[in-house]
Design a protein that fits this description.
By secondary structure, the chain is of the alpha/beta class. Helix content is about 55%, strand content about 10%. The chain has 16 helices and seven strands. α2 links the parallel β4 and β5. α5 packs across α12, α10 crosses α12 and α12 runs antiparallel to α14. The longest helix has about 35 residues. The protein is globular, with a radius of gyration of 26 Å.
């Protein structure tokens, strides 16, 4: 008999619920979030008198990383039950407004019992995990650098507007200048010649600046990303697509991992929210934008399509969509959806992109 297990992932204590194919609950109990307790849970699953087991979790990464890794190491199949599906399913049962960990574990196990289309929650390959960490680190550096530049501009605009119009705090020279001369009296006291000499010396490198500047840390992170991409089996194929630079390629790999996680290009487009969703009731029938989507994945395809908009082929496609009455944003979305098919064909055929060649998707 098959057994389906749902695990409600939490920071300290998880809840596990096992049920048979007929929805009869076999067991339900709490599990501490530590390797020994998780190992005992895995031993309990392996000891079940079942023909096969299927374990479902409600989140990936973060607090679920250790659990998923240990389940995969034990050879137990793991699937992901999306949080939206869990919430909707809980609301549809009796007393659905009441939320509890035992009920949540049972609701997570239910789709594993009834749905065969849940996506496998396989742990990432080591190289994919390294790229994911570097992409996350790069995003932190870019966010902090943008926030810092915004604060500097706000202060300059309020205290020294004339200097704000002349100095760019996003450049190294601008940062060095502001670190020495942040007030009008400092500039007047230093004079033009002294300022020029100090900036000239700074241009050749200041002690400790390379280790402290976020810009240099960002460059080091980009270099580390390029080194990982050089060893990745899919990176060269993805980079062959126009508009897919090293950063977008790394973000795509970090989000998707291996392309065979998806059943086809349509599934990948649906995950990114690039495939329209049909809404039909009686005589009413229309397409709407997908709500359940990975916004970061959609941003990758959108930015790549927008970057390549200047090419003749993409420009002709965009003009054709505009002639059909679509707005600019809708035309770019359509172009991004088309490029999903191209990417899928490239990775499936293991052939790089070639201009004016129609790839079967």
């Amino acid at each position: 008999m098959d057994v389906f297990i749902g695990i409600d992932v939490a920071m300290e204590v998880r809840r596990a619920c096992a049920m048979y194919r007929n929805a009869r609950v076999l067991c339900s109990h709490a599990v501490d979030n530590d390797p020994a307790a998780l190992g005992a849970l895995i031993g309990e699953i392996e000891g079940l008198e079942a023909r096969c087991t299927r374990t479902a979790v409600d989140m990936l990464g973060g607090a679920a990383s250790l659990l998923c890794a240990m389940l995969a190491e034990a050879g137990l199949p793991v699937v992901h039950t999306p949080g939206r599906a869990v919430n909707r399913a809980r609301q549809g049962i009796r007393g659905g407004e009441r939320k509890s960990d035992p009920k949540g574990a049972a609701v997570i196990a239910e789709p594993a019992r009834t749905r065969a289309d849940l996506r496998a929650a396989d742990p990432p390959e080591p190289l994919d995990a390294e790229i994911r960490l570097l992409v996350s680190r790069r995003r932190e550096l870019v966010t902090e650098q943008t926030r810092r530049a915004g604060r500097l501009r706000d202060l300059l605009c309020g205290l020294f507007p004339a200097l704000e119009r002349r100095i760019d705090p996003t450049t190294r020279t601008g940062l060095v200048f502001l670190s020495h001369y942040g007030a009008p009296e400092d500039i007047r006291a230093a004079g033009v010649k002294r300022i020029v000499r100090k900036l000239a010396r700074a241009a050749t490198g200041l002690r400790g600046l390379e280790a402290l500047a976020a810009r240099d840390r960002l460059k080091a992170t980009d270099q580390a990303i390029r080194e990982r991409l050089a060893a990745h089996p899919d990176a060269a194929l993805i980079l062959s697509m126009p508009g897919m630079g090293a950063t977008l390629t790394a973000v795509l790999i970090a989000l998707v991992g291996r392309i065979d996680r998806f059943d086809g290009a349509d599934a990948l487009a649906a995950a990114a929210g690039l495939a329209p969703v049909l809404r039909q009731s009686g005589k009413t029938r229309f397409l709407r934008r997908a709500a359940g989507r990975d916004k970061a994945l959609k941003r990758v395809f959108y930015q790549a399509a927008f970057t390549h908009l200047g090419s003749p082929d993409s420009r002709a496609f965009n003009d054709r969509k505009r002639a059909e009455g679509k707005r600019h944003h809708q035309a770019i979305i359509a172009l991004a959806r088309r490029r999903v098919n191209m990417l899928w064909a490239i990775l499936q055929n293991r052939e790089p992109f070639r201009e004016n060649v129609k790839l079967a998707a």
